[in-house]
Amino acid sequence: MKVFGFAGWSGSGKTTLVEKLIPEFTARGLRVSVIKHAHHGFDLDKPGKDSWRHREAGAMQVLMLSNDRWVLMHELRGAPEPTLDEQLRLLEPCDLVLIEGYKAAAVPKIEIHRPSHGKPPLWPENPHVVAVATNGEIDCPLPRLPLDEPAVVADFILDYFKNR
């Protein structure tokens, strides 16, 4: 599996770009998976539902399934967060895994940078950033990609892997 990441400050447009890239890659015949790292807690479940009640009762894992999808919820219950490598091993084989977050992970990544947000760029301090997707002018020695043109970003990612 090829792994490519996206990093940027909150509100920069990481999720929007990944959302637009998925159909670009799938239209090209690639099977795509996504890992999203959240710095805050989250819950896919609803209080009072059976699966929520099972987790609240202390279950380590709850697997829910239907005709359309299945999900495995795993409670850490104080255990350390799994590493990125451990999470990648949980995924079914695919052609490309897009990772949102994990700024420090040693995987190639595109920084999403919006100068209008007034935040400093990440690329000067992050050796894993190989390009910057932006909607503004920035002074950067890395390739600059148009943030609002997912086909161009997809081409860059596929070319990146071809040339490695």
TrEMBL record:
InterPro entries per the UniProt record, alphabetical: MGD_biosynthesis_adapter, MobB_dom, P-loop_NTPase
Stretches of the chain forming a coiled coil according to its record: none
Domain (Molybdopterin-guanine dinucleotide biosynthesis protein B (MobB)): residue spans on this chain: 3-135
Gene Ontology MF annotations: GTP binding
GO terms, biological process: Mo-molybdopterin cofactor biosynthetic process
NCBIfam families membership: mobB (TIGR00176)
Protein name: Molybdopterin-guanine dinucleotide biosynthesis protein B
Species per Swiss-Prot/TrEMBL record: Thauera aminoaromatica S2
Source lineage: Bacteria, Pseudomonadati, Pseudomonadota, Betaproteobacteria, Rhodocyclales
